[in-house]
Fold:
Amino acid sequence: MPRSYHPPLKLLSPLVFVYRWGVFFRRFLVKGKIPPLPVISVGNIAFGGTGKTPVVIHLARLFSGAGLRVGVGTRGFKGKGRGTRVYPPNQEVSPQEAGDEAAVLRENLPELWIFVGRRREELARRAEREGLDLLILDDGFQYLGLKKIEVVLHSPEIKGYYLREAERALNFAHLVLVPPGHSFPGAHHYRLFPLDVPREEVFAFCGIGRPERFVSLFPRLKQALVFPDHHTYSSGDLERIYELSGGLPIYTTEKDLVKIRTLPNFRGGIRAVKWRAEVDQEAVEELKELLKSWPSVLK
Structure:
């Protein structure tokens, strides 16, 4: 069994209920601004990982490969920076300054612009100022201050207090993507593939929203240590990880590795399992048609 350092989400279920209905009713009240360039948001209605960042990376590569000048944007959750931060191609992104998701985006998309900040309207303005054709937001479905093409990843098996919005919120999406083996009216499919999963005995740790999916990857897992989502690691955490591993290979997620390797007592020996995403071609073509109709496609 994994060792866990965070309380079960169900303990927060009353707050989840209030948040869920607050966001839903705000959808009828808040009139978002139309940005100066097309914006695609990749979001979900669940707490934790449904693969938003790998899908953002996949779409960014697709549209960049098609000749568009693409930027990616993220809130910068738990980053210490304030205001809007702009990172030109190949400029280093610090996870402490910009958040772990921005650092992962940089590692996978070194050639693209990255924009970080809470106000997505400002991210869109800065992207347009840099001459870009398209901005793709990592996790923006619940941000209502900006009108955008809403791509929503949905895993129908996630229920109850693990949902930050009820399924009826999917009516506000332009495109719904579900994993293979699932269906939803009008939805297309997306797939996530873990790369280079070891077959040997390993020790693992993570601080993500759905740790059970990560730890289940390893056929010979001796032990796993689970931290809260977006955990800020300390030198003591790292020493404990090295101690508990007992000399076994140590594996974690990309989000965790970009943070923990910046600690002064990091001495290597920790690897990340990367995820690759693929989206059905029909969904890609639908996205292209939505972009052609910009901005009239906006609800």
